[in-house]
Amino acid sequence: LASVVFHMEDIYVRHLELLGYEKRFFPSQHYVYMLMVKWSDLSEKLIYRTYPEIHTFHKSLKDMFPIESGQIEKRDRIIPSLPAPRWLWESEKSRETTKSTLAEYCQKVISLPPHISRCKHLSNFFKVRPEDENPPAPNTLKRAETFLVSRDQARGVASEISAPIILDTYRVIADFEKSTKYEITLHTGDLVEIVEKNENGWWFCQCESKRGWIPASYLEPLDGPDEAEDAEPNYEGDEHITIQAYKAEQDDEISLEVGETVEVIHKLLDGWWVVRKGDETGYFPSMFLSKAGKRERLNPGGQRPPPRRSTIRNAKSIHNKSRQRLSQDTYRRNSRRYFQQKGSRLSEPQRNSKNAAKSPLKERKNQDNIPEMSGSSSESELKKEAPVIPPRPSPELILERCTDNTRKKVSIHKSQSSSSS
User: Fold this and answer.
1) Residues 6+ apart with CB under 8 A from 167
2) Which of 216, 262, 268, 414 is least enclosed by beta carbons within 10 angstroms?
3) What digits encode the pLDDT tens for the residues 35-74?
4) Out of 79-93, 153-167, 225-239, 310-324, least confident range
5) What's the CA gap between 277 and 279, in Å, rounded?
6) Helical (H) or strand (E) element with 16
7) First and final C-alpha spacing in the chain
8) What is the DSSP secondary structure assignment for residue 254, as one 8-state letter?
9) Does a structural domain hold residue 159?
């Protein structure tokens, strides 16, 4: 057998301690674990890692050292096991089985022989990241909640966090077959608890003794079909760059090449964001986008874009009313309205200028009934104080946004009109 040499770092982790966890609400609700890392150069760093990240690291460490992980002979295993932390579990079996907690895992993995505990893979994972020093901007309505391990518990063998983590429960709407070892197979009607909602549309969940990634499009909340955490559209747009090409497979998607600059106008939790490129809009996989000026995003487990809800066959929801999604015509219409209103406010002093900036979205034969801006000074003076007339919404948009009661009355009126004719 050919010997494999693993590079050991000059500066290595000499101590690793779980301090607690933090519940965050940005960009969506998730939990991060607070770890104190002490290095061989005597520096100390506080880092934050999600449980899915730690679990993925653990799996890759086992793959790097198959002998020490017991994959060849079980009796040779020295790499500790990493089940879900005790505070994440509800099953009777897991409570009865004595397994290592995350705190114990941290202690044991650093105590492994140097060729493992000082390997480059381990050192890189625990190195401080920019987001460790500058956490995401806090939600203005909800502040992050921090839970610490008591010192008395930390000295004990089984270190546990005092307060339990309460996870969101979702229902599976269709059978899902895993295609990688990082995913899990689930069936219609299964109830899962969400550990992390990744914005690329893959969520890390647990179902009884299983845990792994599943597309958010296969899940629905128990209390209603609408995802409460979905953000509102932002028609000003958030500039991103495509890091991978994608060819549209459905009419409401958009095809883009690598390196194109687009504006994200609606971030949806299923991982398919609405982007704007010139006059066009469409759904695009968020994992193929990188925020302008930032490094490329990384996909946990090397995942593919999650399937869209519209492509799932035999989906069975427990809710009578399906999710309401805006059409691409609505996104384009609202974008034109936004720029028209913004342009009218910003171009007041230079309305008579021939070089006044035009809206990035061209008006198509004034179909939204937005008044044309006149070049004459007299009309300009009259219109300075007048607000911009909003476009009349289409019948489809009215039905889409009205209450159920109104929608029923409209359908009754239509049926009566058709019967009388």
Assistant:
1) 88, 193, 194, 195, 206
2) 414
3) 999 999 888 898 999 888 888 899 899 999 999 999 999 9
4) 153-167
5) 6
6) strand 13-24
7) 86
8) -
9) no
E strands in 145-248: 145-148, 168-172, 191-197, 202-207, 210-215, 219-221, 238-242
Looking at the DSSP bridge assignments, the partners of residue 176 are 186
| 355/345 Cα distance (integer angstroms) | 16
Distance, CA of 49 to CA of 46 (rounded, Å) = 10
Per-residue pLDDT of 213-267, as tens digits, reads: 999 999 988 776 665 556 789 999 999 999 999 999 999 999 999 999 999 999 9
Give the chain's domain count. Answer: 1
Range of the domain at 82: 13-133
Q: Is residue 27 part of a domain?
A: yes
Report the chain's C-alpha Rg in angstroms: 27
Given a contact cutoff of 8 angstroms between Cβ atoms, the answer to whether 50 and 162 are in contact is: no
Three-state DSSP state, 312: coil
Q: Say how far apart CA 158 and CA 103 lie, in whole Å.
A: 8
| Closest to 319 (Cα-Cα) out of 168, 218, 173, 176 | 173
Question: Does residue 129 lie within any of the structural domains?
Answer: yes
Residue 265 lies in a domain: no
Are 362 and 338 contacting, i.e. CB atoms less than 8 angstroms apart? no
Tokens of 71: 């994959």
The DSSP call for residue 253 is B
The total number of residues written for the chain in this structure: 421
Residue 169: exposure state from Cβ atoms within 10 A (0-12, 13-18, ≥19): middle
